[in-house]
Amino acid sequence: IPRHPRDPTYRCFLPDLAGFAGPRRAGPGSQHRPAQTEAKNAKVSIRELSLAIADCEFRVPLTPRLARPRLILLPVTPHGHLIFATWCYRLVTNTLGTAMSTQPQPVRKAVIPVAGLGTRFLPTTRSVPKILIPILNIPVIEYAVREVVSSGITDIAIVMSRGMEDVVGYFGEHKPLVDILEERGKGDLADEQRKISSLASFTTLYQDEPRGPGHAVLMGKEFVNGEPFALLFPDDVIWHETPAVHQLIDVRAAHGGSVIATRAVPDEVIPTKGIVDGDEVADGVLALRGLVEKPSIEEAPSNQSIIGRYVLDPAVFEYLEGEHAGAGGEIQITDAIESTIGKVPVHACKFKGFHADTGNPGGMLEAALHEAGKDPELRKLVKSAIAFWD
After folding, report:
1. What pTM did the predictor assign?
2. How far is the C-alpha of 128 from the C-alpha of 45, rounded, in Å?
3. Is it the case that residue 133 has pLDDT exceeding 70?
């Protein structure tokens, strides 16, 4: 804190941060006044020592404790400098640490379980994993991966059965194919294949026993490594300008904890779904007090069904590690989430978008028609085909 001769102003400099100055007056009642100071890497105009008032060329926002700092102003000789490096370091790190600790931890990882026999798509699934069956010309798994990537997540674990390596192989380089496309003058198509190969970083995990969706998630515990994570069951395909996972992340940013995607369903399908029980606390957001897996219509607390999109607090693994059997004798992720209610916030998000369950032929057809409707030529073909049904 250098003091200049014949200048009653004391200056405190922190490189790249706001500097503060004020006059020194004898006796009580000394007041800091608006002042302008210059540091080596920052020029700051302080109009008032309050949050977000500083007009800094670096636009570094002030946290509450930095906004009204408690300065220790000590005089030094004109030829010397008193450097409070340790004090300044502790002030900044403690203040920023306190501010950051109140923010939800970012979601950086996703788990996508794809294990399963795909019996509803036999005989195709004798040799092709169900998740590679296409909606028109794009396999279902790519929709899930692109949704995750569009939500800002590029670290993905795919949980599969052994023998399903083609699922991750789909996102490999496929250099011979790219080279042939280039040789034939189809550079645009070759570029599309390269983009698929560079979408994300993939980790392969195996579920050797079919013990339910909760068991599949448990396989990702080490991959998650104590962080919040997105969970997608890719049979559920959702189209919207804001990806469904991103919608859940936004709710988590506002409310913390875990977030589940839900939608209203007809009464007749309630016994086949996971249903939530809660109160609306914001537009399209429910604070949950319970979840019920496949209840009867009479026992169902609502008609809001869980859809295969989650952003989960790692607290779910405490329950999953107990390997408790739930509905159907399987380890259920809904039971794990319910076990965390009261420990961490758990909310449901009534997501926006068009949804199709591609885990059955009817839902796959619905998804294909939705995609076809976006293309004028395919739309015309569909209308022409439908004309012959009557």
Report:
1. 0.72
2. 65
3. yes
Q: Which residue has the higher pLDDT, 21 or 108?
A: 108
CA 17 to chain centre: 31
Closest C-alpha to 304, from 291, 313, 316: 291
pLDDT in tens, 237-267: 999 999 999 999 999 999 999 999 999 999 9
Q: Give residue 284's identity as a one-letter amino acid code.
A: G
Residues 6+ apart with CB under 8 A from 84: 1, 72
Residue whose token pair is 């069956």: 133
Q: What is the mean pLDDT of the chain?
A: 79
